[in-house]
Amino acid sequence: MEQLLICLSLALIAGLLMSRLAKVVHLPAVTSYLVAGLLLGPFFLGKLGLSGWGIGFGSIAQVEGYGIITQVALGFISFVIGNEFRLSALESMGKQAITVGILQAVVTTGLADVALVILHLLRPDIISMASAITLGAIAAATAPAATLMVVKQYKANGPLTHLLLMVVAIDDAVGLVLFSASFGVANALEQGRIDPISVIVEPLVEIVISLGLGALAGFVLNQLEVYFHSRSKRMSLSVAFVLLTVGLSMLSFQIGPVHCSFSLLLVCMMTGTVFCNICPTSDELMDRLDRWVSPVNILFFVLSGAELDLNILSNPLVLLIGVVYITSRSLGKISGSYVSCRATHCSEKIQKYLGITLLPQAGVALGMAAEAAELSDGHMVRNVVLFSVLVYELVGPTLTKFSLTAAGEIEPEGRTSARTANKPEAPVTLD
To answer: Is the whole model's pTM more than 0.70, yes or no?
Structure first.
């Protein structure tokens, strides 16, 4: 027990310290957490043989032993995403934002699937069909936090910014639905059950019962929440329900020939969505909850970084998968956004730059990759996604800033002379 506590505390401290270093070189915090995990992992600090004292992770298996923390973090991440789907906000988005949000995600998944399936057909020894389909679905997810950080930091404002904020609000939800369906098909392929039940029925059942369970949990949470008035007790109740939905989503059962299971991400997202739409005081509660779970999220990213298997990444063929994934996903986001924006009669600037602003990828994608770990080569899928997250989080925010500046929604640095703007006032005289 003491080893567990020491290891988790050092992982959290390492992530926080690394974030300070990342701030100096203007890197996003999520990248620093992943790097901290990598340094604590079995290929760096773990090689010193101090893992028995709780210092570093001696093996990938040891990191995987903290899987419950990963699952809980995923639950909280998905629950908070549900806060973005308030009916009032969705009504103001209009048909344009919803169309763009759905189409660009579908196009991205389609292009990534085609590229990765072709790679599988050429080299079935380095990537399975199941992993190719799963990676294609993960490609749809974005990182709203990275995008919003740039918008807030540079006070971006304009049509592109407004549409961007709308699209990122629904993008991950669409990605979660695509992932649930694709992962169901992938599992069917691995089990050799290529039939309508396993390929079509079971994925659809998983989506429906996951949304149903999440809706029920959100409703019950709202019914119980009215009996508590203090902020701390209401927040504790919300935490309890997130833990409950995480636990329930791990259950599975059989109905005749149909194997029924739940998607943790969809269940928790739907719980948050229903709760936020029917509870009049959910705004303040969700804000407090988001801040409270910050340590759990940091641990999630640190542990994800520690699971990066450098032995796999040293294989040029595996790196090839990462390059194909990053290239096809980038083309999908840019072309999908362009086509959907053009179809909905957006301005030329929005058509040109929206896709670039959607390139960052982090938390939800890592969550999907963690869920895909049960595939035969799921470890490779997770490492490809981790590799892509490191790349995207390094360049994504910079590209977002560039696009918003090019669209005229961020004032370029140097447009206003600091010498003129900060010129001291003339001294007051008595003449």
So the answer is: yes
